[in-house]
Structure formats: C-alpha cells, structure tokens
From TrEMBL:
Residues 5-208 form the Porphobilinogen deaminase N-terminal domain. Keywords: Porphyrin biosynthesis, Transferase. Tetrapolymerization of the monopyrrole PBG into the hydroxymethylbilane pre-uroporphyrinogen in several discrete steps. GO terms for biological process: heme biosynthetic process. It catalyses: 4 porphobilinogen + H2O = hydroxymethylbilane + 4 NH4(+). Pathway: Porphyrin-containing compound metabolism; protoporphyrin-IX biosynthesis; coproporphyrinogen-III from 5-aminolevulinate: step 2/4. Its EC number is 2.5.1.61. Monomer. This is Hydroxymethylbilane synthase. One of its GO terms (molecular function) is hydroxymethylbilane synthase activity. Residues 222-291 form the Porphobilinogen deaminase C-terminal domain. It holds the Pfam family Porphobil_deam.
Amino acid sequence: MDKVIRIGTRESQLALWQANLVKDLLTAQGFSTILVPIKSEGDIDLVTPLYEIGVQGIFTRSLDLALLNDRIDIAVHSYKDVPTQLPKGLINAAILERGPVKDLLVYKHDTQFLEDSTYVANIATSSIRRKAQWLRRYPQHQLHNLRGNVNTRLQKLASENWDAAIFAAAGLERIGVRPDESVILDWMLPAPAQGAIVAACREQDTFCREALAPLDHAETALCTGIEREFLRYLLGGCTTPISAYAYIQDGQLNFEGNLCNLQGTLSLTVSHQLPAADAAGLGTSAAKEILVQGGDAIIEEIKNAQR
C-alpha cells in the first residue's frame, strides 16, 4: 500500500477530531494517510445567519472542490452538513456508526427560566430548525444568532448577556468540552443525519472506495438515508425547519419527521414504526404525508419570506 490517502477536513477542533477518527480507522487497516486542512466558506463568514447565506453545502463545498480537483482523496464531514444532492463525480463512500443524536442546552446560571412563563429568556443558536422548535415551546423567548465552531460559540455564550445556547450534543461530547451546565433536549427533534460522520471520495476512485467500505455502518446508513430522503423530498436545507430521526430497536425501525414554519406556530409531524427490512422508501412516503397535511403551504411561506 504505497499510496498515501489525503484526507481533507475543515480546520475546527471538531472537524479535525472527525478526520482523525477516519485516519485512525484507515491506519488500522494498514493504509498510509495524511490530513489536509481546508478552510470552508462557512468558517470564513461567522456573522451572517446561515439561512441568509442561502448556500447549499456551505461547510462542504470547499472540500468537494478539493476532491474534484484531486487535491485530496477523501473528505470527512458531519453528515448533517452534506447536501442531499452531491456534486457529479462524488460519492458518500462510508457512513460511520452514529454518535450522540440529540441537541443540548448549555445554560449560564440555571434552568429556572424554562419553568417561568413570564421570563423572557435570551437563547442563542444559528439553526433555523432549533429556533422554530424552541419558539413553539417557548414563544416568549428571544432568539439570537450564534455562528462559529463549537469553541467559538461557547466563548460567545460566556461573553454575551444570554441565558443559554443550543448545540448538538455530539459536537461538544466528541471533543470533551460539554459543560456541566448543560441538559439534553429530549423533546427537540434533531436535524436529519445529526450525530453521523461521512467520508466522501471520487466516484471513480476504487482504491479509496474499497478502503472506506469496512468503515460503513449499515444500520446508521439505513437510518440516516431515510432521514435524508425525507429532507430531500421536502426540498429542505439550512433554510427550512425540517427535522427527522430514525433508529432501530428490536428489529423495528422507528421514524419521526417534522416540518415547522419559521415562527414555530405551525408544526406538522409524522411517525412510523415498521420492520427495518421493509423501510425502503419510508423517507419519501413520510414526506408526502407532511405535504398532504399542509406542508406545501408552509414551504411556500418560507420561500416567500426569504426572497
């Protein structure tokens, strides 16, 4: 194995943790690897809300280009950041076993504000999905934009006059920075493929595809595939409050999908349980149910609001 596999990654601590995980797994198989850090557009503009940027794959496009231009051989991403339509010539070659899925709330002092319906809490998040779900539960609260990598967002929370901020549990736990002042939001439905890591390569690169094949976790691939199918059919991305979560228990696949309007005043949910062996096409059929419930009107409303 004389070939050295070049693994592209964003430069944040979390991205490097994910890339090093893939690197270690490949090294354990006897492959030679190096990391190639690449700055993404999403890491450069830390001010503009993601829904205002309106770019699909803002955290992945730079790595996609590096793959297509043969600057790297593999790109490692948080799967929830990857658009459902990949650039021509690229393939998601391995979806690693999923980590923590849920969102969590990092608070500065205590969580008493969650019980006090008269208190106007200041909550920070860059996710339009989290904002919509939070406002549905706590309509009196004020939401604030929060961009940057995990460490930057934790520092920003500490310096601002905010009560709390929302993070993906996986991001904080993987790099060991989850504060004691935090609580899992069991009621908040996650983004499609949240907690999963994906390794992409060129479609024609049989060497890397074969190297990555043992890293692919079938159960995670099935569940995240259904979630992303749900997202794709609803034409969702960073600008649409779409949530989905699928998991397998005792041979049964459990799925829940949700679409909110931007204010959180309208929420449509679909849930199913069926044998995992019969789950093909579930993401599409669940999305169609959402549209029949009135999802098409919500999506049109969101598009009009962002024009």
